[in-house]
Fold these 3 entries.
Entry 1:
Amino acid sequence: MAEGVTGEKIWLDGGLVDWEDANVHILTHTLHYGLGVFEGIRCYKGDDGRSAIFQLHAHVRRLFASAHINMLEIPYSEDQVRQAILEILPANHLDEGYIRPLVFIGSGAMGLNPGKNPIRVAVMGWAWGAYLGDEGVQNGIRAKISTFARHHVNAKMTKGKTCGDYVNSILAKREALLDGYDEAIMLDTSGLVSEATGENLFLVRGDRLYTPPLPTVLDGITRNAIVQIARDKGIEVMEAQLTRDELYIADEIFLTGTAAEVTPVREVDHRTIGSGTRGPITKLLQTAFFDVVNGRDSKYERWLSYL
């Protein structure tokens, strides 16, 4: 998906620089050891022509929380980072797109102790469509249970959105694609359903909505929004431990995330889920979500930060 990503400006260490000049030294510590944190944020152009970032404040709070978990002291305030995020799409002449803040350790000392290496911050933005494809958003994707387990909570703390953690996701994603699927669903080290490679998971059974509890999953911002929207619509939402065979017999399954938005799953491990199409509750919540991010539902306008 990232092939061909380009633009005009990147915010790097306090100011905008030309895209081609936003470079780092080959001895950048994070490049070697993976200790850095990031966010994925979307901006939508609403029906009224205005552009709004979805859940900007929540994303920046999580970025700083991830840095704190990993003992990275960001040399800018939350307000400064928010302002950089608000500036990046207009600087690239985009009225909607994907935004990637990144906190990383610069060059200097090598080895596992980065010492006094500088903590650097970048904010990038580019045009990006449906992560799992427009067809997937409409009709659902095919997923497989990965042979790779999700991180144990005490092997790598799961509440930080940490760069190196995503090697686990890359391995699972590549395996799924090579096996002819669109996405992988990962189990935790106890064998219970955790999440997909970059998305939280929801399961519909009867008139209830279930999602795995937080210990081994990222505290997803889109996940939390969907929980709130569902409850506001009178749908009971439960955090529950789920086994892989409960996925097979679910009425509906869908994934949520900034990149994936709300994407139905029509098949898991060659088992058709429900009717094999986007189910009614998935469609209801998907429609409600896109109404929110496109400014069509004033009830949730607090989640939007206009450019």
Entry 2:
Amino acid sequence: MPAALSLPGFPSLNTALTSSFGNNIRITRTSHVTGGDINKACRLELTDGTYVFMKANSKDNLSFFTAEAAGLEAIARTGGIKTPELLCYGTDEDRGGFSFLLMEWSQGERRITHYWETFAHQLAAMHRAPAEKFVIGGRYGFVQNNYIGARPQTNTAHDSWVTFFRDCRLEPQIRSAAHYFGTGDLRRTGWLLDHLGDFLVEPESPSLLHGDLWSGNVIVGNDGKAWLIDPAVYVGHAEADIAMTELFGGFPQEFYSAYRETGLLQPDYEGRRDLYNLYQLLNHLNLFGRSYLSSVRRILDKYIR
């Protein structure tokens, strides 16, 4: 069983910084970082010239950051691929009341040669790493619930991947999206849940997944290699991570060719890809509204005649 979150927590940002960097440390400049739509993101420049990345949200949303930190720690434990070094988390009442997560700042300006092939092989190493330590009482799930974007993500342990994906991924999203669906949609989604085992397969072995693996959640690290950020981790089928990479634009072909060399994609992966992404599109429907409904219906049309 993995240890509880090892990251220290602090009652103020000043305390967090002085505990991490020394008593004389202060913030000299705060620069807004673009890219996120859930949390405020900033680069903090400290008096010793160090840069620190800070994510902030309301005080009530501290669980966003403890869940994120647990996910990053899990990815790091596999030894397959890097994430930014975590520093600490906390809440701050002195500046209006907010929660925060501090981590290493990545300059990330220059990629190594064969960046995409290296990324694919490191991701595969994460997917091949033993995953039983990340689940209690089953083979699939995670030791705690977390978030997919701003929505809660349930990670109750199951012994079957198909059952886990049905009960903890598709069914909660379909239930939340019911007000978008007509009678025919509800009948079709019910049929799909009942027949999911006709389409999905059990993996040869469980894998720790990033869970929200699109281009915005991969950065160039200080070593010039790909680092993973903003995870929604759980143990599942490695194919679900690869499917997500293909949903919003995809990565260069070099990445997919190199990943296929690892043998982790089972035969007819392309026939299952849209089912994995149905979860992500339902989540976007529930987060952002009706503009994603046609994409959801297209996938239903593909699997239900």
Entry 3:
Amino acid sequence: MNKKKSGNVVRFNRWGYFFLIPFVVVFIAFQLVPLVSTIYNSFFEHYFKNGLTEVGPTLIGLENYKTLFKNGDLIKYFGNTMIMWIMGFVPQILVSLLLAAWFSDPSLRLKGRPFFQSVIYLPNLIMASAFAMLFFALFSDSGPINSMLVNMHILSEPYKFLSHTSSARWLVAFMNFLMWFGNTTILLLAGMLGIDTTYYEAAEVDGATATQIFFRITLPILRPIMIFVMITSLIGGLQMFDVPQILTNGEGSPTRTTMTLIMYLNKHLYSKNYGMGGALSVMLFIITGILSLIVFKFNQQSEK
């Protein structure tokens, strides 16, 4: 009897492997093969001189990686990317926590809560390119924002938002904040609604304040979701491309202070420098893995 049952279990398990075949095939074809190919190409000198004459591929070992660190562009553009990500992520997580706590509090008895939840998620559905074009028109030298500020006598002359480092970075960060805070709010709200209400009832009986309940109960239970949000946001931040690309016309102006790692990678691929593009892609993969591991380990230590 036991042998018959174990035989049935084995047969059922086989169906699980059959269902995994499409995923494995797609993973190998569209992720594993390109990854191995990128690492392989990073060890070669391969580019098109003047866009016409092909140079290489010639095996040069780690020379592409040495060039990335020698000219300092990798560190500079990594710094730009992290600064703009932090400028957008900090207000994003704070506003999302506030809204999620607000929506999940039954004592407030908010009317039209589903409507407002849908509204704050809508910016996430707008294409980033359309968002960037909108802000480019709004904050241009002759745009409506400058016209309004001049007409209200707040400014004596139009302010060149995209010609100053701080304002250009804040615009990029603000757009990323608007596009993603709704998604983060929904994730945190789902986590808060899943918390057992008996924890809150016991805390209220013990005389805990709303602030103590939030920091001693809600946040610790939300830690796994917070880790997920932070890591996915970090990965998205390192892949920041479309907003600064369109807003600065691909130049990372002013003086390349809004140039991100992906914009830098795009320039190499646009000029068909496959060797440097491959090396930069590998470095970006390593940086993303290291930073994600640091975030994960840091949160694990905080739990102890």
